[in-house]
């Protein structure tokens, strides 16, 4: 898994959760650093913050789709900055809004890994099957 966020505390928490879920985690604090990480290794899923200085998470999602098409992207954003149209971008399979919990991250990773198992035609949206995977993950409400 690749975790991309310019906010160091969030980067540490996300990577810690990814590791606790049983995956390896690489981190990048910018979109440019994420591209370098993608070039140098096999990445199963990219968790990308949308708002970062310089090139943002949307730019990164587009780069991933163009250059690393098999890597699904889960966008991470503040609720007030998120536009659901971001999820219509090819390769973006889900999103999580801040504040979020480990359960939300786990669900988004599961969705992304399911997307990886689909055929390239399904991944490209040729059958519109990718839209059933895009959803906002929220922890269950407490009674």
Give an overview of the whole structure:
With 143 residues, the chain is α/β, with parallel strands linked by helices. It has one domain: Rossmann fold (3-Layer(aba) Sandwich), CATH 3.40.50. Helix content is 36%, strand content 16%. The chain has helices at residues 8-20, 31-39, 57-67, 102-116, 120-123; strands spanning 2-4, 26-28, 46-49, 73-78, 92-98. Strands 2-1-3-4-5 form a five-stranded parallel sheet, with helices on both faces. The N and C termini lie far apart (33 Å).
At a glance:
The chain has 143 residues and is α/β, with parallel strands linked by helices. It has helices at residues 8-20, 31-39, 57-67, 102-116, 120-123, and strands at residues 2-4, 26-28, 46-49, 73-78, 92-98.
CATH T-level topology:
Rossmann fold
- Order of secondary-structure elements: EHEHEHEEHH
Helix count? 5
Based on the structure given, which CATH architecture is correct?
Answer: 3-Layer(aba) Sandwich
Largest sheet at a glance? 5 strands, parallel
CATH H-level name... which superfamily? Response regulator
Record the SSE blueprint.
Layout: E1 2-4, H1 8-20, E2 26-28, H2 31-39, E3 46-49, H3 57-67, E4 73-78, E5 92-98, H4 102-116, H5 120-123
Parallel strand pairs: 1-2, 1-3, 3-4, 4-5
